């Protein structure tokens, strides 16, 4: 991605709240698939959400991930659900990824992901996680996931073509030239249950080859692709008991290599990577420190790196950049507004957070963002206010940094 020249540019991490009309229309179409009326409404909704992002002061908008909706999904489900309708080789199951209690414990030197209920943070705060009034999982709905039963192939050509066309219309209507679109990373794709591939490596490279088609389609349309890869950080909490750091780094190194395989030959300046710690509303006391995986994150061939930095569990980690050399020509996209609280950040606080990063990597290399997607995590009215605070804070920081 290009470096800043005269102000701190702004973006966000992807998902934005869908409109009531879009949610209702999606529910009505149900399993029957797309209809002309729904497609028209989707296009209109994307044009509208791009305009609203621009009005809030967002320089690099997206489609709100409005096209990332399964035809039979009434609500969001998990952020990666959209891919289930774009990959061949899957078979539906009745497994609820949030309630399945099957446990796969790791052994020394062998990193094995356990089930979601067996996560270490959830075990530590089991009473709170089990209490519907705690608010921890209030935004989660029961959602099933398929399993891999045959060769993975990419079948989403029609859907991604629609996505990029809709965002293109939105950017043109707003007079903007730069936009991004999120896509599932190989590492996160490979967390599906696997009944076909013989090894973790074989599965990862199959995911890389399949999802590469989506990355290429987005870039070929003139957009920036954002690879969503919580697996690099979040998987640490999903290994029980806690593994040795060296073993975990080997585990994610394989994911780095598969990701770079998927990105081979694609222009780095049109690629950004998003890393987070799962972003659910929980204590997150067992999150891996960012410093422990930063080398692996920077080894991915992207032009910019998006990560949580406003979240109270990770805000202090801005200091790791004091000792880390950002590769020349690359940017960081720190979250300076959080999805994890209903409190709307004051623009002065947003500006302060931006200036911290500018002080260690340079004002040219900081693009201000949200920690993670706002859609499904805060009320639409609050999400809009947070984007506005982001735009206002960046304006304040820009005045100070380009005096």
Question: What is the CATH-assigned architecture?
Answer: Alpha-Beta Barrel
- The helix tally amounts to 12
Total domains, how many? 1
CATH names the topology as TIM Barrel
**SSE run:** HHEHHEHEHEHEHHEHEEHEH
CATH class: Alpha Beta
Helix coverage percent:
25-40%
Structural class: alpha/beta
The global form is globular
Oligomeric state as shown? single chain
3D structure, described in words:
By secondary structure, the chain is α/β, with parallel strands linked by helices. The protein has a single domain, classed as TIM Barrel, CATH 3.20.20. The protein has 12 helices and 9 strands. The strands form 2 sheets. A 6-stranded parallel beta sheet has the order 3-5-6-7-8-9. The longest helix has 22 residues. It is globular and about 55 Å long.
Name some characteristics of this structure.
alpha/beta, 37% helix, 403 residues, three-stranded mixed beta sheet, six-stranded parallel beta sheet
């Amino acid at each position: 991605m290009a470096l800043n020249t005269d102000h701190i540019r702004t973006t966000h991490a992807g998902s934005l709240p869908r409109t009531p009309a879009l949610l209702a229309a999606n529910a009505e179409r149900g399993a029957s698939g797309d209809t002309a009326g729904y497609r028209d409404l989707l296009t209109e909704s994307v044009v509208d959400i791009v305009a609203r992002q621009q009005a809030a002061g967002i320089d690099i908008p997206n489609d709100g991930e409005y096209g990332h909706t399964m035809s039979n999904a009434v609500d969001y489900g998990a952020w990666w659900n959209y891919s289930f309708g774009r990959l061949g080789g899957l078979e539906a199951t009745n497994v609820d990824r949030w309630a399945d209690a099957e446990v796969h414990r790791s052994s020394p030197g062998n990193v094995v992901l356990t089930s979601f209920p067996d996560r270490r943070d959830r075990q530590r705060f089991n009473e709170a996680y089990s209490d519907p009034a705690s608010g921890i999982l209030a935004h989660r709905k029961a959602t099933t996931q398929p399993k891999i039963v045959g060769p993975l192939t990419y079948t989403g050509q029609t859907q991604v073509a629609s996505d990029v066309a809709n965002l293109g219309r939105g950017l043109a209507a707003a007079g903007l030239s730069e936009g991004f679109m999120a896509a599932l990373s190989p590492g996160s794709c490979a967390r599906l249950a696997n009944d076909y591939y013989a090894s973790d490596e074989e599965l990862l490279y199959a995911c890389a080859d399949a999802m590469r088609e989506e990355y290429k389609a987005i870039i070929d349309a003139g957009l920036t692709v954002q690879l969503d890869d919580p697996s690099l950080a979040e998987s640490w909490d999903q290994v029980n008991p806690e593994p040795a750091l060296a073993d975990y780094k080997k585990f994610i190194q394989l994911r780095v290599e598969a990701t770079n395989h998927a990105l081979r030959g694609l222009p780095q300046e049109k690629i950004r990577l998003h890393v987070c710690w799962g972003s659910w509303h929980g204590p997150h006391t067992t999150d891996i420190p960012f410093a422990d995986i930063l080398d692996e994150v920077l080894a991915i061939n992207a032009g910019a790196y998006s990560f949580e930095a406003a979240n109270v569990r990770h805000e202090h980690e801005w200091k790791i950049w004091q000792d880390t050399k950002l590769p020349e020509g690359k940017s960081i996209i720190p979250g300076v507004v959080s999805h994890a609280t209903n409190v709307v950040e004051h623009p002065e606080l947003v500006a302060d957070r931006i200036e911290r990063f500018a002080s260690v990597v340079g004002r040219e290399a900081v693009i201000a963002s949200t920690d993670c997607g706002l859609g499904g995590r805060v009320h639409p009215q609050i999400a809009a206010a947070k984007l506005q605070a982001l735009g206002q804070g960046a304006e304040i920081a820009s005045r100070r940094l380009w005096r």
